[in-house]
UniProtKB/TrEMBL annotation:
Family per record: Belongs to the STXBP/unc-18/SEC1 family.
Domain of life: Eukaryota
Name of the protein: SNARE-interacting protein KEULE
Family matches, as InterPro entries: Sec-1-like_dom1, Sec-1-like_dom3a, Sec1-like, Sec1-like_dom2, Sec1-like_sf
Comp. bias regions, Polar residues: 547-566
Stretches for region Disordered: 545-597
Annotated GO biological process: vesicle-mediated transport
Amino acid sequence: MSMSDSDSSHNGDFKTFRQISRERLLYEMLRSARGKDSKSTWKVLIMDKLTVKIMSYSCKMADITEEGVSLVEDLYKRRQPLPTMDAIYFIQPTKENVVLFLSDMSGRSPLYKKAYVFFSSPVQRELVAQIKRDASVFTTHWCTDFYLERTMNLEYFAIDSQGFITDHERALEELFGENAEGSHKYNECLNTMATRIATAFASLREFPYVRYRAAKSLDASTMTTLRDLIPTKLAAGVWNCLGRFKSTIPDFPQSETCELLIVDRSIDQIAPIIHEWTYDAMCHDLLNMDGNKYIHEVPSKNGSKMEKKEVLLEDHDPIWLELRHAHIADASERLHDKMTNFITKIKQLSYTISDGGELSTRDLQKMVQALPQYSDQIDKLSLHVEIAGKLNNLIKEQSLREIGQLEQDLVFGDAGTKDVINFLRTKPDVSHENKLRLLMIYAAIHPEKFEGDRGAKLMQLARLPPDDMNAVNNMRCLGGPDTKKASGGGFSLKFDVHKKKHGVRKERSDQEETWQLSKFYPMIEELIEKLSKGELPKEDYPCMNDPSPSFHGTTQQSVSVRTSPAHQPAHSMRSRRGATWARPRNSDDGYSSDSVLRHASTTRSELRVVHKLTTKLKREIILGSSSLDDPPQFITKLKLLSAQELSLDDLQI
C-alpha cells in the first residue's frame, strides 16, 4: 500500500482524496437515497457521459450494487419503463439533461416511481425554475428537496489517491489555439475548469489561499499575451466558486485551511516530452497501452494454446503499487528478487509434500494452480516480469539510454548545439518520434536556435517532415513572452540557473542519483518545496485572498496584480490524529494540505513528485490537471495547436 493508504488505515479519521470521493458518491448520494421512505429496495442509477466516468474512477460496480443499485443506465439512451422502481439521477446541471429528466418523469406514464436527482455541480437558477414549472413532476413523482440539498459538488475524475483531472482533453486547443480568446469554447473551458477545481475543495472541505502564476510582464514596454493571463483568470474563477461555497455548503470552512497554487505549462515545457525512467512512465510511453489497460498472452486453461488477456495496471495490484514510481532498473531488480524468492518458497513446499522427491516444472505449475493464494501471486509476478522484460528490450533496441543521457545533459546545461548536431548526424536510425522529442527539448531550452531558417535546417538534419515543425514552434509558444528580454527582476522560466551553464535545471545537492538517468526532476518539485518553505516570490505568485474589491471576480483589459498580505498559516480541517508524520512548518493545530493545480495537462513524473514530496514534507499534496498526458498524446496536441500569438490588443470588451 502507498504511504497515504497505510496512513488512512492506521488513522481512521484520515482518508485519501480518492477515498473521500468514493465515500461521498456511495454514502452521501446513493445511501442517502436508499434511506428515504420508499417501499422499493432496489433502485436504478441513471448517469450521463461525464458522471459515469466520475463514478467509474472512484467506485467499483460491486460498491454501487451494495448500496442498493440493481441497474445502471445511460440518460441519453432509450430505457425500459420500470414504474415500480425508484431512480437516482446523477447528472450534470445542463439544460439538455434537465429536459431529458423531465421527459422521463412527466406525463401519465413516467419511467420510474420516484426520482432522486443529484447534480454534479451548482445548478443555475434558470434550470431550477424550469423544473419547478413542471407541476406534474412535483405533484405526483418528486422528492421536493433535491435542488436545495442534493448538489453533490463533485465534478472531477479521481485518477489517483493524490490526483484528479477536470477532463479537458482539448484545453490546449481551446485556450491557446488561434482566435481562441473570447470565443465560446474559451470561456466555457475556463468556467467549467474553475468549477471542477472548486468541487475538489468541496469534497475535501478545505478553503485555500489561492496563489497563481502571474503574467510574466504587465508593464507597458512588453506586450502581454492573453494566453499568459489564463492562470490569473482561472484563479479568479476558482475564487468566485469558493466564495459561493462558503455560504451554500454546510460546514465549509470560513477561513483558510490550505494552499492552492495554480500554474500552467509555461513553467515546465520539458516534463511532458522528456523520457521519464520510472516503471509507470515507461509502461505508458513505450507499450502502446489503452489508458491503464495492458494486453498480454497467457496459456489457456487446458494449456493447448495462448490467448489474449486484458489486465489493468492500477492500485488494486500490490506489485504495481510498490513499483510504479521506481526507476525501471530498480523495478527490474526487485522483480527478479521477488520471482527468485517465490520459486524458492514453492520448491521448499514441493519438497515437503513429495517427501524429498524432486518435482518437475509441470508439477510445480499444477501445485501453484491448485493453491489460489500462490496462483494469484505467480500471475501478477509473471505479468510484471514480462512487462519489465519488454521495456528493457525496447530501451536497448531504441538506444534510449543514449538519447536519455543527451536529453538530461541538455536540461542541466552539460550539452549544447554541437552535441545535438553530432547525435543527429551519427544516429540516423533513431526513431522519428525520439528525434522530434529531442529537438522539442532543445527548442524549449534554446528558442533562439530556431529563429529564421535555423529551425528548418535542424529539422532537415533530423530528416523530419515539415509539419513536425508545428510541434516545435508551439513548444516555444507555450513559454510565453521572450524571457531573454525581461529585466533581471522579472519572472523567468529559467530561474535558479547556474550562470556558467545554459540549462533549465540546477543540480540538487539533496537528491542522490542511485540510478542512471534519474537526475531530471519536474519544475513543480521546486515550486512545491518553495511553497512549503514560504519562499515563493509574491510578485511572481500573488494571492487571490486580497481584500481589494476591484480585483476579485473580474475579467479586465488590464489586470491589477497585487501581492498577498502576510497571512497566518493555514490549518487543514483534515487532521491526522495519531499519525506518525511530523507536523508541517508553522502548523500548531493539525496537518496542513497543499494543492497544486494547473490548467494544462500533467505528466506521470509530476504525479510521482506529489507522492514523493508528501512523504518528504509531511504534508498532503494533491495534483489537479486538465488531463493526464503521455508524450505521444502531448505531441499530438501540440501539432494541432496554432502557434499564432494573441495580444491584449486583440481582445474586444
